[in-house]
Amino acid sequence: MKPEVVLYKTLPDDLRARLDAHFTVTTIKGLTPEIVDEHADLFARAEGIIGSSCKVDDALLQKMPKLRAASTISVGYDNFDVDALNQRGIVLMHTPTVLTETVADTMMALVLSSARRVVEVAGRVKAGEWQRSIGPDWFGIDVHHKKMGILGMGRIGLALAQRAHHGFGMPILYNARRHHEEAETRFNAQYCDLDTLLQECDFLCISLPLTGQTHHMIGREQLAKMKPSAILINAGRGPVVDEQALIAALKDKTIHAAGLDVFEQEPLPADSELLKLPNVVALPHIGSATHETRYGMARDAVENLIAALAGKVEKNCVNPQVLR
Ligand code: DGY
């Protein structure tokens, strides 16, 4: 008999067929307590789950006594209670490599659009406000050769450094848990402590996962250390930045602007103060959202689950210690 798997995200047909070839798959619309209760028998039998953007906590795991592997269609795994998975010996798989370049593109898009006010002025053109040659009230600020500050030098940070340094001639400063030899060699990136990074950079690009250590890592105190001309870019996880402190800093012009792909609450509530600020570019968490990359992530997640339930994990595992 094939192992039972719960799928909580729609997959392209060919990937769904690949999953069906290995498992008995049931698709559900999410992992809310109501849906889980409605499918209690299925959850009691399931040995694998695959999907994204839903919380997998201890309460849910209690209802899945047979679960052996979880596969998230994302690099980030902050939706998972990893300690609870570890205690139960459940393998957690993710998609860390396939989205790197696409997310770095998104970050560069945020850098350019917030510095050059692309969204704002394009809106003005559409509104018929372009009546004569534009003046300084339409001008932005330069990106090229400004100081790029990267907070979190993982794969995405590195891909951003490549674009910024080689494409835009930007000196790279970075802060991370440890020195990154490759970034230093390839991009002459300068490691600095967080305070120096905040004080020196023209763009603060945050590419950090959400953990107990990174929650609200950038708050009022940190924003106050930035240059009034600096722009904050966040495409990691929303709660790494204290959103209320950011709103205050943008209103008070403590910093110049922000380009945000992630928020403390997603979807961003329609009445968020951020949406009222002209110096904010807000995107709907599109970091990896291209057809090619989302397909690649789904493909990797399917292969990850197949490998995990066959006991053949070689890569993409968040908690390899449970394999031992
Ligand atoms: C991820 O994979 O964690 C990203 O946030 C998706 O864009």
Automatic annotation (TrEMBL):
GO cellular component: a single term: cytosol
Main location group: cytoplasm
Assembly notes: Homodimer.
Gene name linked to the record: ghrB
Family annotation (NCBIfam families): PRK15409.1
Every D-isomer specific 2-hydroxyacid dehydrogenase NAD-binding domain range: 108-287
Entry function: Catalyzes the NADPH-dependent reduction of glyoxylate and hydroxypyruvate into glycolate and glycerate, respectively.
Domain spans labelled D-isomer specific 2-hydroxyacid dehydrogenase catalytic: 5-319
An example Gene Ontology molecular-function term: NAD binding
Keyword Zinc attributed: no
EC number: 1.1.1.79, 1.1.1.81
Family statement: Belongs to the D-isomer specific 2-hydroxyacid dehydrogenase family. GhrB subfamily.
Localization, UniProt: Cytoplasm
Top-level taxonomy: Bacteria, Pseudomonadati, Pseudomonadota, Gammaproteobacteria, Enterobacterales
PANTHER family recorded: 2-HYDROXYACID DEHYDROGENASE-RELATED, GLYOXYLATE_HYDROXYPYRUVATE REDUCTASE B
Protein name: Glyoxylate/hydroxypyruvate reductase B
Catalytic activity: (R)-glycerate + NADP(+) = 3-hydroxypyruvate + NADPH + H(+); glycolate + NADP(+) = glyoxylate + NADPH + H(+); (R)-glycerate + NAD(+) = 3-hydroxypyruvate + NADH + H(+)
Stretch forming the signal peptide: none
Active-site residues per Swiss-Prot or TrEMBL entry: R237, E266, H285 (proton donor)
Enzyme class, UniProt record, top EC level: oxidoreductase
Keywords: Cytoplasm, NAD, NADP, Oxidoreductase, Pyruvate
